[in-house]
Amino acid sequence: MSKSDLTVGCIGAGYFSQFHYDAWARIPGAIAVASVDQDIEKAKATGLCAFDDAGRMLEEVQPDIVDIVTPPGTHLDLIRQALEVRPKAIICQKPFCRDVSEAESVAQISNTAGIPVVVHENFRFQPWYRTIKAALIDGMIGDVLQLTFRFRPGDGQGARAYLDRQPYFQHMPRFLVHETAVHWVDTFRFLMGEPQAVIADLRRMNPVIKGEDAGYILFSYQGGRRALFDANRLLDHSADNTRCTMGEALIEGTEGSIELLGDGSVRLRRFGETSHQQLLGPHGSDTFGGDCVHALQSHVVEALKKNVPLENTASDYLPVLVQEQAIYTASEKGCWVQL
After folding, report:
1. Whether 180 and 102 share a structural domain
2. Looking at the domain assignment, is residue 295 inside a domain?
3. Predicted confidence (pLDDT) per residue in 124-144, tens digit
4. Tens digits of residue pLDDT in 175-202
5. 86 is in which domain, residue-wise?
6. Which of 4, 97, 116, 338 is least surrounded by CB atoms within 10 angstroms?
7. How many C-alpha atoms does 249 have within 13 Å on its Cβ side?
8. Which positions ≥6 away from 127 have C-beta within 8 Å?
9. Cβ(141)–Cβ(255) below 8 Å
């Protein structure tokens, strides 16, 4: 560890935290030094200095970056505690807070303290979406008119759905959108900009779970553009690892179209042609989502060291939560909801 390394204190050692700890171990210029979990054995298993109390870790370690990997109900209190020791930045997993009101409180106290809180919304950092965004900026398919994503992870069938990996999925009253589709709400913003309205049809297909696991979400944009999130967790798509991209995308424009395939590859077809040009090859790593956790955390480290703008601060992320609530309202009322 060098004097210039940023120290990281991680709060949470549950299932998804493994990707956080793995990423920190591979990021130059940052080093994870502490782990917190109510189950001290889980914290010890990370190999870092272990705590079962977040407040004690924050006081004793005083980390430069606080990485919160805990459920939404804990976020507001943990962020308040972290701000008291004045780290350089706080990263917080999604779903972010319990509701829009709590998220607004975080944005306010973060701005007042002058300490950024970055939402760990990692899908926009997946290499295929970065490739697609660059292609759109370069005008490769002209004016974008439509985007479709078919969400097909194939993990939602039967009585044991989700139990082996994240069993709490079965008990979430709001599941498909609140836990998962929110990734694409943010990614659609990244690729298409802010929508004007949304309509949705959400449903529960597997009776053993509490929340919705399938549905259509249609976003409307200026100029008649549309983006469709077509989701069903009971169905799969063509991929050796259906969790790599979790589905397939098609972005269509006046001068061509871009496809995202299940292996993480991206290809371009020019308007009027039948052949394809590869923009990104298949993803060969077994890391989660194209190593997007590593990419997001690297982005935070780079931003702090080079003083460049951060993506998805708490304030930036508020429209995602507003859109999430609008999706549920649209499905309940069966009509378009203006944003």
Report:
1. no
2. no
3. 999 999 999 999 999 999 999
4. 999 999 999 999 999 999 999 999 999 9
5. 6-120
6. 4
7. 28
8. 264, 280, 283, 290, 291, 292, 295
9. yes
